[in-house]
Amino acid sequence: MSIQIRNLSFSYGSLNALQDINLSLQEGCFNALLGPNGAGKSTLFALLTRLYALQNGEISIAGRSIAHHPAEVMRKLGVVFQQSTLDLDLSIAQNLYYHAALHGISKRQALPRITEELARFDLSGRLHDKVRTLNGGHRRRVEIARALLHKPEILLLDEPSAGLDPATRESLNRHIRELCDQQQLTVLWATHLIEEVHNDDPVTILFRGRILASDTASRLCQQHNSADISTLFRSLTGTTE
Amino acid sequence: MTLRDALICFNGLLQRELLRFVQQRSRFFSALVRPLLWLVVFASGFRAALGIAIIEPYETYITYEVYIVPGLCAMIILFNGMQSSLSMVYDREMGSMRVLLVSPMPRPFLLLSKLMATSLISLLQVYGFLIIAWLWGVEAPVTGYLTALPAFLLVAMMLSAIGLFISARIRQLENFAGVMNFVIFPMFFLSSALYPLWKMREASEWLYWICAWNPFSHGVELIRFALYQQVNGQALSIVIAVTLVASILAVRGFQPQQGMGKR
Fold this sequence. Notes:
The complex is a heterodimer.
Chain A: E1 3-12, E2 15-24, E3 30-34, H1 41-48, E4 56-61, E5 64-65, H2 70-76, E6 77-80, H3 92-102, H4 107-120, H5 136-148, E7 154-158, H6 166-183, E8 186-191, E9 202-207, E10 210-216, H7 217-223, H8 229-237
Parallel strand pairs in A: 3-8, 3-9, 6-7, 7-8
Antiparallel strand pairs in A: 1-2, 1-4, 4-5, 9-10
Helix pairs in contact in A: 3-4, 3-5, 4-5
Chain B: H1 3-23, H2 25-47, H3 64-94, H4 96-101, H5 107-135, H6 142-169, H7 175-189, H8 197-203, H9 205-213, H10 215-227, H11 233-253
């Protein structure tokens, strides 16, 4: 189950946010989308999740066009947005039941799935706690648990580690990698933090709305004679991140 | 989407609105205080100044308090509809509107379900107000409280749809304060909520015509007649038509080609 993006361009008025993007995600893998702030990552996510309509180009998921079969495609996607989308005054359970209902999953069906997902993130005992009482890392975990509730085949995460401390970031990253291994989940992880990318990850470097390079991190380093992905990223983008 | 999916989804949306409503108790009380001030203070002071002739649907002379109760019910619905729209704008800014929009259910269904859910919440506030008004001695026929229910719901749908349409068009939160002033107050004052339109006509012909064209006036009249177990056919058809048009515009406003979520 993968995503294919062909000739995708998007502009806000005269500002080109994405230009001629072509990309295929590797199935069952942790795919990294690396780019500094303002590279176009969130715009790409908005297009992948149908928050914006396509202007030019095509996106298809498992061979189904996102423009023509939206419901079918959206069932296969789990999404974690950059900004938190949890209702802080509601409990974890209430937030998760709401998401389940939006996917046509009843409370009775949702409960075992919620229990399973929260257990994975060591949050089982906090089912009825208000989200407001959770720290940033736990809120992110709840959002990931929520995104997995309807058993999607592809998980999109837009800067999921933003605002978290290094230890929490690392543990979140590890969790998602374990999910890929255990469930053959295809993951697209957008980040501007190079340390979150491993050598064998398929990585796409996005800069000013264009793809500068796309391959596994190790192969990209070989092709460009770079010592590591960090050096390569800096030399390609001219940034210090 | 199957019927079962639709029911589960609608139920989920309604429960969320209910939970948020319970969380925001202050909103409930402020929603009650506002019309009660009008009923208890404003109407008492105004009673002497404004004589109400016998007009439909009333069968006899009525006090001013009795006259304005339907308008105050509509006011609760108006404020609630607009506040719900405000929270949708807030949701959109904070991103939780995105949770709704990435659901696989058809977007028109999601948005109309949300309208219906906020409309049903409005009814809780309206009946809370009617109970206090009844305790204050302003009564309608007992069955009128039941026959008014569909009218409340329809008017709530109309006003929520108008509110949603506006919220879809407002890019920045701070502009909404202006919308409150430019939408809520004119809608309320340029209607038959506080004074019969023939009184307005005596004062100014053009103001009368604005009031007569105001869909809120027809919402108020629909409620007024329904509370007295009558159907005002003209008001009913206008409210239905405006609800349909506003719903279509609201749903179109949230389509992605309109740049929903664009920052």
